[in-house]
Amino acid sequence: MPEYQRPLTVAEYEQNFSQIKPDMTATMAYNESARCLFCYDAPCQQACPTGIDIALFIKQIHTGNLQGSARTIYNSNYFANICGKVCPTEVLCEGSCVHNHSQNKPIEIGRLQSYASQHAIAENIQLYAVPKEKTKGKVAVIGAGPAGIAAACELSKAGVEVHIFEAKSSPSGLALYGVAPYKITNQEILEEVAYLQAQFGFSIHYNQPISSKEQLAKLEADFDGIFLGIGLGATNPVLANTQNWANVWGATEFIEQLKTDFQKVVIGKNVVVVGGGNTAMDAASETARMGASSVKLVYRKSKEEMSAYEFEYDLAKQVGVQGIFGLSPAQLLGDSSLKGVSFTNEKGETVEIGCDMVVLATGQQKQTQFLSQIDGLELNKQGKIVVNEQFQTTNPRYFAGGDAVNGGAEVVNACAEAKKAAQAMIKTLFS
Amino acid sequence: MPNISANLAGIKSPNPFWLASAPPTNSGYQIMKAFDAGWGGAVWKTLGVPVVNVSSRYGAVHYKGNKMIGLNNIELITDRPLADNLREIEEVKKYFPNHAVIASLMVNTREEWHQIVKDAQNAGADGLELNFGCPHGMCERGMGSAVGQNPIALETITRWVMEVAKVPVIVKLTPNITDITEPAKAARRAGADAISLINTIQSIVGIDLDNLVPYPVVGNQSTNGGYCGPAVKPIALNMVKNCALDENVRLPISGIGGIETWRDAVEHLLLGASNVQVCTAAMHYGFGIVREMIAGLEDFMRQKNFETLNDFIGLSLPKVKHWEDLNLNHKVVATIDSSKCIGCQLCYTACEDGAHQAIAVSADKSIRTPQIIEDNCVGCNLCSLVCPVDNCITMERRDDASLPAKNWAELVAQDQAPTTFNDQRGGGVGHWNPTPKDAWDKRKNNR
Questions:
Q1: Whether A208 and A285 share a structural domain
Q2: B295–A56: do the CB atoms touch at under 8 Å?
Q3: Contact A38 B289 (CB under 8 A)
Q4: Of A122, A157, A175, the domain-final residue
Q5: pLDDT tens, residue by residue, B11-35
Q6: Cα separation of A192 and A119, whole Å?
Q7: Is A237 an 8 Å CB contact of chain B?
Q8: What is the CATH class of B323-410?
Q9: Catalytic annotation present for B228
Q10: What residues of A are in contact with residue B261 (Cβ under 8 Å)?
């Protein structure tokens, strides 16, 4: 019997996906913050893509200035609690903590960050003097993911009226629809977005995809500038599902279904996950926790060449995922239903692995078709939006940040890029 | 946005955070770096008679992995040429006209005092601080704390300075004295504009048990040094309070001693200081430490709706009385939140061995949470101090708050205070204590 049973109730789901970074109590935060050395030119701050003054916010937790601590974090990163929970801190701030060098445990920076920011969210603390009347100008943001919302916050703080157009019915893009459920709950994500929206006063228009040239033209007419936070598209169809078999998933689509309505997700008994990135690790872990009997993670290159972080692979192995290396996906196998996948190994031989569910974590396509409708907007050879150092595209009224620019990185990268883009928009469009 | 601009006896600064006269203020380079980092003022490392320093110069008290909770120094006043310091004072003032630059001074004769005061003023110092506190190396030569411990000498020299001073004069006091208000009053009599306290406390921080030489080790010898850092804050706060409350002092106070966080600074201000000076924290963490202090001060003021520092300077003073004024009717007892208790039983052993045997542990060893014996609890709150869990032990009021307060002074005046040794009105009468034999029984039962 597999370690995890398929969760039928919310309680069982929360149990299967118990949080890997649980909230800290006041005593835990006090003791952990005491360990921070308050380094000069702290390596953790240097490692943080948003440059949070980590030593300061930790010290502020310790001296009982929680509000100040939250402000220190939000000054640099609007997704304070979300990043505290979902960031790969093991390879960013915590990974660079100097305690590692003396073989002490690094400071639990992510959990401390959540501790401080949750205080601000729970108490609905107004950290900034935000102009109620937004008279500086108008900006349209396409996509209410981390990039779009971060840009909206920064622009709104400066008095710009911001309208976000979001295709889905909920905000925060992959933070909600893509991040593994054991990293953060949906509720927490929505709470932080609601807190930001209440504080900064931007509008989000849900179920309003922007896809046509006419819609873009209208935005260009109604707004002074446009920020593209559109992220990436559908999963690369590395294996063609010509027979339209059930249980053949792109990882992005599978995880979105899981995050939106887990009770509708049916997991096969024997799952094959194709890929070697962090998304593959997540998908593998999630299928195991949803009750699969066996989960095989199959990557075409060697274990050392996997792009996934070591700790993400460890998480997957901890729930029983088996890693198989050196096999390139060739085609799906089956008759009336999916029966397996055939791979080619380094020697060119065919290797078949039986399964009744396949998840392709083989990267997402760029949204080139949509972007081609924007006049003068250049994409590079990989289909990523070309931007200058201010994250301005080659169409000067369009700025961009996040996955559509960097090709698919972390939530924190989207937040960092969008903030810089918004600052540049304020300078170039409104001064 | 709260206004944190400060004013000490007419010396203005953008905020109340000054660097104290010490190694961090040895050079104009450091002071300018500090101002860039956010500090509001700096007192230059004492200018005066020529000196030569030893190596090494510092020792520290480290406590259970926390480095330098106390710092001891045997360093002297500046050993840099006076001309260099004066030139740099002028340069710093040119770049930072709105920040406070104070010249700390220590010389011998009246002529020397007159000359150095004029030199410092010509260089553009916003104020002068008279160093009557250095407790090693200078006092043997009749300066520093030798003056601070001698109110007559202090008054004499301060008068000399006031004869030629054109900028505010701050007298820095040494804590190595029985009653700090005595030199403070002397400063006032002499016409000084403000006092700053405390300077460092005479101390020995520890001994190198291999060589049997105290720290800091100079060859195979040592000497006592001046102690500072977080460990001395309680001494400083008490002395600030004493000077602030004494009606014959009535001078603005610059609070010095153990300030590392916003809380420490606010505590000094609440007890009457108009600004604060910091040394050890800057030596430990660099000038960047001030950013937590500034943010914390502002957030504190926001939460309390204080618009300026004057809204809360000295606000705690009316609450500090003489012991005999405290309400004897005020009764509290300890309570343990069993949902938070982690079962270390430190409260039990503290009370059992160190206080009033008012906490019990269960005979069932699987139950680790102790119980308060309320009848025996005198409300000393020792347990709440040793408990490692936030808010696990709290003190709860048990007296009838509607009853009028009653204090020792009134008891004595009304002839109701206990006077004889076995007086029935004594505080411990009727309070249960275990008998000596109970300790013997415990040993026998191994509990």
A1: no
A2: yes
A3: yes
A4: A122
A5: 999 999 999 999 999 999 999 999 9
A6: 11
A7: no
A8: alpha beta
A9: no
A10: 59, 63
